[in-house]
Write a structure and sequence with these properties.
The structure holds 2 protein chains of 2 kinds.
Chain A (H helix, E strand, L loop, with lengths): L2 E10 L3 E11 L4 E5 L6 H9 L6 E5 L5 E4 L11 H11 L4 H14 L15 H14 L4 E5 L7 H18 L2 E6 L2 H7 L2 E5 L6 E6 L2 H5 L1 H27 L1
Parallel strand pairs in A: 3-7, 3-8, 5-6, 6-7
Antiparallel strand pairs in A: 1-2, 1-4, 8-9
Helix pairs in contact in A: 2-3, 2-4, 3-4
Chain B lengths: L18 H30 L10 H13 L2 H33 L1 H16 L5 H9 L3 H25 L3 H9 L4 H38 L9 H10 L3 H33 L9
Helix pairs in contact in B: 2-10, 3-4, 3-6, 3-8, 3-9, 4-6, 5-6, 6-8, 7-8, 8-9, 8-10, 9-10
Classes of the chains: A alpha/beta, B mainly alpha.
Keywords (chain A): ATP-binding, Nucleotide-binding, Transport
GO molecular function, one term (chain A): ATP hydrolysis activity
Pfam families (chain A): ABC_tran
Chain lengths: 245, 283
């Protein structure tokens, strides 16, 4: 089972409507990107799906065991080693104690970070921390993985490497991934489908399917990137204009 | 046959001391220099002062009291008694304050009601409790411990509370998405995250405990009470023996500083280092 959103709205006291009647059906095993300008409610949408926030109106269906979550900054616990951070996720998921160390090793191999199991988060680079965070999200062993701009703060080369690894992981595990980003090229590179959100309140403006053929064709990918960027710029300007008036 | 390791090229110097060694030396040398400067100033003022030497004794006159107090065993006995009271009282304060702080952190209504009272108690000078404690418990250890606990508990509670308040919201979100129960969140996330604030609170709690103890021992003298450092201070006052008073003040300072330097400072440094942080002004 994937994720189903039906007329989901969210409003905060003071700031008003953040998400406006959003409906979407995300299939099991799908890699979907939620694309929008800053402040369009992308992160709030993930918070609703993960259960961190309750919608003000509408309803949603998520798998019974919930969704794993990867935060924008790695959100690793600084007093634990990288391995212990992942092990904590296993412990909280009631993973058998005797098998935890082995599973931690497997997960670190999966994110290609076997040498850093014993390092503390502050001893790791930004990219390595995000890999540990990915290993921790995978440790929860949930079918749905929510990713909130996880690579936004990384340099281009690291981001590029992680994009490739994430695609490989998705192909290996068949998880349903909902990936929030404001980066058009990142969305095209990773997702099978892109939901483009409007700014303030967040509504689904466009839905685009991304085929492997389009991804492999630089000219087509660039055209789509330009088109989506134009939509986002228009939305951003509209939002700024609304703010001024 | 000579080996390469036995050969030393001319002009090759011994490796420079590491930055950590230099920092450790700085940390040791700087306070020593400060103490030497202060003691020298004190001696110069004593020489220059028109007051009689028994009314403004210099460091030499004060130190001259030391052999006498060591010989009759009163100083070491008093330090031992006070340290035992301070450490045992502090441990009791920690055991009482920690669950209260956790309760207040998770019961907002209770915190709104009790929190300001605890902060007010922290502001209240401990010496104010001494007369009430003497009326209630007489000249006994109960009086001393009451004053000490009332001085230390509020600051430990406030330390842990502020440690918990400073936990980033994201850790709470993390606990939720990892499926942690309330108990698991407190045990695995909240308490370790609040630890630096808690240790600061403990540090402050120790300072309050030590100060409160001195206040209590200064006033509550006699009865079944053993002689503490504060009582020794009072004895100096009764005998109008300023060198004795000054010496006891120095001992109180020294014990407080030693506990700080040997226990709390290394503990805090280790906690912060483990998290990739350092105290302001340290590298």
């Amino acid at each position: 089972m994937g994720v189903l959103l039906h007329e989901v709205s969210l409003s905060y006291p003071g700031t008003g409507l953040v998400i406006d009647r959003m409906s979407a059906e995300i299939e099991d095993g799908e890699f979907i990107a939620v694309l929008g300008a800053s402040g369009c409610g992308k992160s709030s949408l993930l918070n609703i799906i993960s259960g961190l926030l309750a919608p003000s109106a509408g309803w949603l269906e998520v798998p019974e065991d919930g969704a794993a979550f990867m935060f924008q900054d790695s959100n690793l616990l600084p007093w634990l080693s990288a391995g212990a951070n992942v092990e904590l996720a296993l412990k909280l998921a009631d993973y058998p104690k005797a098998l935890r160390a082995q599973r931690v090793r497997e997960l670190f191999e999966l994110v290609q970070l076997s040498h850093a199991v014993d390092k503390k988060p502050h001893e790791l680079s930004g990219g390595m921390r995000q890999r540990v965070a990915l290993a921790r999200a995978l440790a929860q062993d949930r079918q749905v993985l929510l990713m909130d701009e996880p690579f936004a703060a990384l340099d281009a080369i690291t981001r590029d490497m992680l994009h490739e690894e994430l695609r490989n992981l998705w192909e290996q595990t068949g998880k349903t991934i909902i990936f929030v980003t404001h980066n058009v090229r990142e969305a095209i590179r990773l997702a099978g489908r892109i939901l483009v959100l409007s700014s303030h309140p967040g509504r689904i403006l466009e839905t685009r399917r991304i085929t492997d053929e389009l991804r492999r064709n630089p000219a087509q990918a660039a055209d789509l990137a330009n088109e989506l960027t134009t939509i986002l710029r228009k939305e951003q300007r509209k939002h700024e204009h609304t703010d001024r008036t | 046959m000579s080996t390469l390791t036995e050969l030393k090229a001319p002009g090759v110097q011994a490796p420079a001391p590491s930055a950590a060694t230099t920092r450790r030396l700085d940390a040791l040398v700087a306070p020593v220099i400060a103490v030497v400067v202060l003691v020298s100033l004190w001696q110069i003022l004593a020489w220059a002062s028109p007051l009689r030497s028994d009314l403004f004794p210099g460091p030499g006159a004060v130190l001259a009291k030391l052999p006498e107090l060591l010989a009759d065993g009163s100083l070491l006995g008093a330090v031992g008694t006070s340290l035992f009271r301070a450490v045992s009282g502090f441990v009791i304060a920690v055991l009482v304050a920690t669950p209260i702080a956790l309760l207040l952190a998770h019961q907002p209504l209770l915190r709104r009601g009790v929190g300001p009272l605890i902060s007010a108690m922290q502001v209240l000078p401990s010496i104010a409790w001494v007369p009430a404690a003497i009326i209630l418990f007489g000249l006994s250890d109960a009086t001393i411990y009451t004053v000490l606990l009332l001085g230390a508990i509020p600051s430990i509670i406030n330390g842990l509370l502020s440690g918990i308040d400073m936990i980033p919201q994201q850790y709470t979100a993390l606990s939720k998405v990892l499926g942690a129960s309330k108990r698991e969140h407190i045990l695995h996330v909240e308490l370790p995250a609040a630890l630096p604030g808690y240790v600061s609170g403990l540090r402050q709690g120790w300072a309050f405990a030590w100060r409160s103890l001195m206040a209590a021992e200064l006033i509550a003298v006699g009865g079944s009470l053993a002689l503490g450092v504060g009582s020794l201070l009072q004895r100096g006052r009764d005998l109008a023996d300023l060198p004795l008073v000054m010496l006891v003040i120095l001992v109180i300072l020294l014990v407080g500083a030693l506990i700080e330097l040997l226990c709390f400072a290394p503990l805090e440094r280790k906690l912060l280092r483990d998290r990739g942080m350092s105290r302001t002004g340290e590298k």
